[in-house]
C-alpha cells in the first residue's frame, strides 16, 4: 500500500508500564528516550536503519520483545528500527512497545509533515496530543493510562501515577468507577499515599476497551477534599484474534459461458481485534482451487472486498466440457493487511457452474422400428435421445411431439422422467385389415427454451415405422345389443330373432358357430349354424330373472381360426304383460270383541303381479256365508281396499269368511281366499281368545295395519 503525501514524525512519550519493583534505585526500567522526532523522508527504504532504541528492564533484558503499531516497520534485537519494505507514508504517529518478563514500556514516534492513515494509535487510543487534563484551582494531575491487553504475571503491577502537588498532609487518594468499586470490581487500585495506580489482572480489549475511572483526595475521615477528576484507562489492542468466517456455508452460482469478470459471490470474514488498527485490517486470498482444470486459476478474489469473480474466458467456463461443474476454493483471510506477521483464518467456498440450454437434444438414430398386434394398446417403442445439459434441469428434460402420421389420434408419446426417453404408445387399437403399416414423424425439444445462438437441427426429428401384426379377432355381433319385444306366455318353440355376427378378419375365410352363453331362466335356444333364437320354455314376465319387464341373455359367436376366437352378443327381450295372475288379499286373519260397539272387523287390501290394466280396480265380494244372512258386510273403500264389518255381535268363536276378489283384466281373473275372524272376550282391557282358538291378533291392531296400508295408496 502506498500513500501519497510525505509527512513528519513527532514522538510523544506513552505511559511507562513497570513490571518490576522499584527496589533497584540505580536502574530505571524502560526506554532511556521515550520521545523521537523523525522527518519524513521521500521514502523509507527496506532494511535501512531509521533510529536506535534503548530499553532496559534492569534484569538483563531476557526474552525482550518489541511490538510496533505499524506493520511496515520492525525493531531488530539490537534496538534498530527498520522498514520492512519500501514505503512512502506510514502515518503521523508510531508506538513501540517493549516487554520482558520483568518490565515493559511504551515509546512514541511522531513523523512531522505526515497525515493519519488507518492503524495510527492516535485514533486507537483516542488520545489527543495535549497536556494532562487542564484544570483550574486544582492540584490533582492525571494522564490517560495505556495498558496493553494480554499482559502476563506478575500482578499487581504499577501502570500509572496520580500527582497532587498541593495535597494536604495526611490526605489520601481514592479511586472509583467501573473496574474498581463497580462491576467488574477489583481490576484497578490506587496507593492511597503515593497515587500509584496498579492493575491486578490481565485485560482483554475485546471485552472492555476503555475504563472511565475517577480520582479524588480525601481527609482521614473520608470527606472529599478535591475531585473527583476523570482518569481514562485505554486498553491497547494486541493482534490476538484470528479472522473467522461466520456466515457459512458459502455457496455461489455462476452461469456457464459468463463473461470474464463476472461476480460470483462475496466472502466476508470477521476479526474481533480493534477495527481501527491493522490488527483487524483483512486481506483475502485464494489458497487452493479444486479441481484445477481446465485452469488452476479459474477465479480471483478481490483482496480487500472479498468478491470472487471469474477470470477465464467464457469458452473455458463450459459446463459440458468441464471435468466437474463444482469448484471448491479454500479462501484465506489474513489480518495485518496481509503481511506475513498477520493471523489467518480459512473457509471453503463452493461454486456451482450452472447450466444453460446451449445443447439441443438429438435422437440417437434417424429411424426407429416398432411392431404391434392389431387390437393391442400400450407402449410399443422407446425413442432415445442425447442431451449434454444438466439432467436435473429443464434444459435436459425432453418433450416429444408427433408432428405427422397420426390423423386418427391412435398414438401418443410421453417422456420417461428417469431416462428422458420418449415412450410411444398405441391408445386406440389398430386394425390390420384397414392398415398394416404406419409411419410417424416425431420431434423432440427441451422444456426450457434454447439460448438465442442455438437452434434445433435435423437430429431433433426422427421417423418411426410401425408394423401391425394380424391376429385372429373374434366375431362381432351387430347390432349389439339386439332388442326384441314379445308377449309373455307365447308358445314354446316361438322364433324370437336371428343373431348376426361377422368376422373382422375379412382376408381369412372362416365359419362362425353360435351358442348360448348366459340364459338365467333356461328359456332360449340358438341354432349353431344360422343363429336363429327360439323359445324352449314359457316366457314369464313375473319371473325373478326379469327386471323392469326386460330379460337379458348372452350368446357366443365362435370362428374357425386356430386357435378359435370368440365374440359375445347381448339379447334384450322386452316382455309384454298378459293377465295371467289372479289378485290376492291381505291380511287373511282378524280379531273382533264379542261385545264391540264398533263392528268394523278389518280393512282388506288387494294386490296383483300383473301390470295395469290387468290389476285394479279390484272387486271385493263375500262368496258364501256359513251363518245366517246379513251377519257380514263388505264395503269398497277405493280401487284397492275394502272394509269387512259385522251387522251384529257374535259369540266367541272362530269364523271363516270366503272373500272373492276380481281384477280388471280382459278376461278378468278371480281369487277366493278365506278370511279367518276370531271373536274374542274383551274385559278390563284384556283380550281373551282362548275359546276362539290360538290366535291373539287384536282387531284394533289389524285395523291400524290396514288403515296404514290404505293411507300409503
From TrEMBL:
<keyword id="KW-0479">Metal-binding</keyword>
<comment type="subunit">
    <text>By contrast to classical cadherins, homodimerization in trans is not mediated by cadherin EC1 domain strand-swapping, but instead through a homophilic adhesive interface which joins two elongated EC1-EC2 domains through a region near their Ca2+-binding sites to form a tetrahedral, X-like shape.</text>
</comment>
<keyword id="KW-0130">Cell adhesion</keyword>
<keyword id="KW-0677">Repeat</keyword>
<dbReference type="GO" id="GO:0007156">
    <property type="term" value="P:homophilic cell adhesion via plasma membrane adhesion molecules"/>
</dbReference>
<dbReference type="InterPro" id="IPR020894">
    <property type="entry name" value="Cadherin_CS"/>
</dbReference>
<comment type="function">
    <text>Cadherins are calcium-dependent cell adhesion proteins. They preferentially interact with themselves in a homophilic manner in connecting cells; cadherins may thus contribute to the sorting of heterogeneous cell types. May act as a negative regulator of neural cell growth.</text>
</comment>
<dbReference type="GO" id="GO:0007043">
    <property type="term" value="P:cell-cell junction assembly"/>
</dbReference>
<dbReference type="Pfam" id="PF08758">
    <property type="entry name" value="Cadherin_pro"/>
</dbReference>
<keyword id="KW-0732">Signal</keyword>
<keyword id="KW-0449">Lipoprotein</keyword>
<feature type="domain" description="Cadherin">
    <location>
        <begin position="147"/>
        <end position="245"/>
    </location>
</feature>
<keyword id="KW-0325">Glycoprotein</keyword>
<dbReference type="GO" id="GO:0034332">
    <property type="term" value="P:adherens junction organization"/>
</dbReference>
<feature type="signal peptide">
    <location>
        <begin position="1"/>
        <end position="22"/>
    </location>
</feature>
<dbReference type="GO" id="GO:0008013">
    <property type="term" value="F:beta-catenin binding"/>
</dbReference>
<dbReference type="InterPro" id="IPR015919">
    <property type="entry name" value="Cadherin-like_sf"/>
</dbReference>
<dbReference type="GO" id="GO:0044331">
    <property type="term" value="P:cell-cell adhesion mediated by cadherin"/>
</dbReference>
<dbReference type="GO" id="GO:0016477">
    <property type="term" value="P:cell migration"/>
</dbReference>
<dbReference type="GO" id="GO:0005509">
    <property type="term" value="F:calcium ion binding"/>
</dbReference>
<dbReference type="GO" id="GO:0016339">
    <property type="term" value="P:calcium-dependent cell-cell adhesion via plasma membrane cell adhesion molecules"/>
</dbReference>
<dbReference type="InterPro" id="IPR039808">
    <property type="entry name" value="Cadherin"/>
</dbReference>
<dbReference type="GO" id="GO:0016342">
    <property type="term" value="C:catenin complex"/>
</dbReference>
<feature type="domain" description="Cadherin">
    <location>
        <begin position="584"/>
        <end position="695"/>
    </location>
</feature>
<keyword id="KW-0963">Cytoplasm</keyword>
<dbReference type="GO" id="GO:0005912">
    <property type="term" value="C:adherens junction"/>
</dbReference>
<protein>
    <recommendedName>
        <fullName>Cadherin-13</fullName>
    </recommendedName>
</protein>
<dbReference type="GO" id="GO:0005737">
    <property type="term" value="C:cytoplasm"/>
</dbReference>
<feature type="domain" description="Cadherin">
    <location>
        <begin position="246"/>
        <end position="363"/>
    </location>
</feature>
<feature type="domain" description="Cadherin">
    <location>
        <begin position="364"/>
        <end position="477"/>
    </location>
</feature>
<keyword id="KW-0336">GPI-anchor</keyword>
<keyword id="KW-0106">Calcium</keyword>
<dbReference type="InterPro" id="IPR002126">
    <property type="entry name" value="Cadherin-like_dom"/>
</dbReference>
<dbReference type="GO" id="GO:0000902">
    <property type="term" value="P:cell morphogenesis"/>
</dbReference>
<keyword id="KW-0472">Membrane</keyword>
<feature type="domain" description="Cadherin">
    <location>
        <begin position="478"/>
        <end position="585"/>
    </location>
</feature>
<dbReference type="Pfam" id="PF00028">
    <property type="entry name" value="Cadherin"/>
</dbReference>
<dbReference type="GO" id="GO:0098552">
    <property type="term" value="C:side of membrane"/>
</dbReference>
<dbReference type="GO" id="GO:0045296">
    <property type="term" value="F:cadherin binding"/>
</dbReference>
<keyword id="KW-1003">Cell membrane</keyword>
<keyword id="KW-0165">Cleavage on pair of basic residues</keyword>
<dbReference type="InterPro" id="IPR014868">
    <property type="entry name" value="Cadherin_pro_dom"/>
</dbReference>
Amino acid at each position: 500500500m502506498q500513500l501519497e503525501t510525505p509527512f513528519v514524525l513527532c514522538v510523544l512519550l506513552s505511559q511507562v508500564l513497570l513490571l518490576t519493583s522499584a527496589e533497584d534505585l540505580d536502574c530505571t526500567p524502560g526506554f532511556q528516550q521515550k520521545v523521537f522526532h523523525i522527518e519524513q523522508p521521500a521514502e523509507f527504504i527496506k532494511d535501512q536503519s531509521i533510529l536506535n532504541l534503548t530499553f532496559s528492564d534492569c534484569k538483563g533484558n531476557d526474552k525482550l520483545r518489541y511490538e510496533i503499531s505499524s506493520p511496515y516497520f520492525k525493531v531488530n534485537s539490537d534496538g534498530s528500527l527498520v522498514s520492512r519494505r519500501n514505503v512512502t507514508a506510514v502515518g503521523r504517529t508510531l508506538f513501540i512497545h517493549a516487554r520482558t518478563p520483568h518490565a515493559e514500556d511504551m515509546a512514541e514516534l511522531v513523523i512531522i509533515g505526515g497525515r493519519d492513515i488507518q492503524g495510527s494509535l492516535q485514533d486507537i487510543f483516542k488520545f489527543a496530543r495535549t497536556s494532562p487534563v487542564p484544570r483550574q484551582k486544582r492540584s490533582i494531575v492525571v494522564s490517560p493510562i495505556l495498558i496493553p491487553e494480554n499482559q502476563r504475571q506478575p500482578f499487581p503491577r504499577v501502570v500509572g501515577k496520580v500527582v497532587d502537588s498541593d495535597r494536604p498532609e495526611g490526605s489520601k487518594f481514592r479511586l472509583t468507577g467501573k473496574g474498581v468499586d463497580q462491576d467488574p470490581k477489583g481490576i484497578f487500585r490506587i496507593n492511597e499515599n503515593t497515587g500509584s495506580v496498579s492493575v491486578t489482572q490481565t485485560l482483554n480489549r475485546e471485552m472492555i476497551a476503555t475504563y472511565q475511572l475517577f480520582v479524588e483526595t480525601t481527609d482521614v475521615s473520608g470527606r472529599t477534599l478535591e475531585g473527583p477528576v476523570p482518569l481514562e484507562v485505554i486498553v491497547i489492542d494486541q493482534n490476538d484474534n484470528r479472522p473467522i468466517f461466520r456466515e457459512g456455508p458459502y455457496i455461489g452460482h455462476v452461469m456457464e459461458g459468463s463473461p470474464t469478470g463476472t461476480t460470483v459471490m462475496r466472502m466476508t470474514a470477521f476479526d474481533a481485534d480493534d477495527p481501527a488498527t491493522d490488527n483487524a485490517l483483512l486481506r483475502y486470498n485464494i489458497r487452493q482451487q479444486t479441481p484445477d482444470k481446465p485452469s488452476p486459476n479459474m477465479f480471483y478474489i478481490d483482496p480487500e472486498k472479498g468478491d470472487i469473480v471469474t477470470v477465464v474466458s467464457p469458452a473455458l467456463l463450459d459446463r459440458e466440457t468441464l471435468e466437474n461443474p463444482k469448484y471448491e476454493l479454500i479462501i484465506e483471510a489474513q489480518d495485518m493487511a496481509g503481511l506475513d506477521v498477520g493471523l489467518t483464518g480459512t473457509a471453503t467456498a463452493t461454486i456451482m457452474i450452472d447450466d444453460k440450454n446451449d445443447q439441443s437434444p438429438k435422437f440417437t438414430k434417424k429411424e426407429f422400428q416398432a411392431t404391434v398386434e392389431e387390437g393391442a394398446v400400450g407402449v410399443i417403442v422407446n425413442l432415445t435421445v442425447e442431451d449434454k445439459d444438466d439432467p436435473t434441469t429443464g434444459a435436459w428434460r425432453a418433450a416429444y411431439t408427433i408432428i405427422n402420421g397420426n390423423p386418427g389420434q391412435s398414438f401418443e408419446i410421453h417422456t420417461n422422467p428417469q431416462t428422458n426417453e420418449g415412450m410411444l404408445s398405441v391408445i386406440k387399437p389398430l386394425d390390420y385389415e384397414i392398415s398394416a403399416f404406419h409411419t410417424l414423424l416425431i420431434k423432440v425439444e427441451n422444456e426450457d427454451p434454447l439460448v438465442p445462438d442455438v437452434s434445433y437441427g435435423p437430429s431433433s426429428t426422427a421417423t418411426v415405422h410401425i408394423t401391425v401384426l394380424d391376429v385372429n379377432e373374434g366375431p362381432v355381433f351387430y347390432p349389439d345389443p339386439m332388442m326384441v319385444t314379445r308377449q309373455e306366455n307365447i308358445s314354446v318353440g316361438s322364433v324370437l330373432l336371428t343373431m348376426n355376427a361377422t368376422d373382422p378378419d375379412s382376408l381369412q375365410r372362416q365359419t362362425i358357430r353360435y351358442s348360448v352363453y348366459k340364459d338365467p331362466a333356461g328359456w332360449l335356444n340358438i341354432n349353431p349354424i344360422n343363429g336363429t333364437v327360439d323359445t324352449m320354455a314359457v316366457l314369464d314376465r313375473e319371473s325373478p330373472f326379469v327386471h323392469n319387464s326386460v330379460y337379458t341373455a348372452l350368446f357366443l359367436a365362435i370362428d374357425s381360426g386356430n386357435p378359435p376366437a370368440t365374440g359375445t352378443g347381448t339379447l334384450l327381450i322386452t316382455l309384454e304383460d298378459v293377465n295371467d295372475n289372479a289378485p290376492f288379499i291381505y291380511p287373511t286373519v282378524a280379531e273382533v270383541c264379542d261385545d264391540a260397539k264398533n263392528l268394523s272387523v278389518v280393512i282388506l287390501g288387494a294386490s296383483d303381479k300383473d301390470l295395469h290394466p290387468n290389476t285394479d280396480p279390484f272387486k271385493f265380494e263375500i262368496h258364501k256365508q256359513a251363518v245366517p244372512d246379513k251377519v257380514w258386510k263388505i264395503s269398497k273403500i277405493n280401487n284397492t281396499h275394502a272394509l269387512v264389518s259385522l251387522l251384529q255381535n257374535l259369540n266367541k268363536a272362530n269364523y271363516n269368511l270366503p272373500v272373492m276378489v276380481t281384477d280388471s283384466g280382459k278376461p278378468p281373473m278371480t281369487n277366493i281366499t278365506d278370511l279367518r275372524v276370531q271373536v274374542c272376550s274383551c274385559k278390563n282391557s284384556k283380550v281373551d281368545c282362548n275359546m276362539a282358538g290360538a290366535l291373539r291378533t287384536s282387531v284394533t291392531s289389524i285395523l291400524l295395519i290396514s288403515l296404514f296400508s290404505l293411507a300409503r295408496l
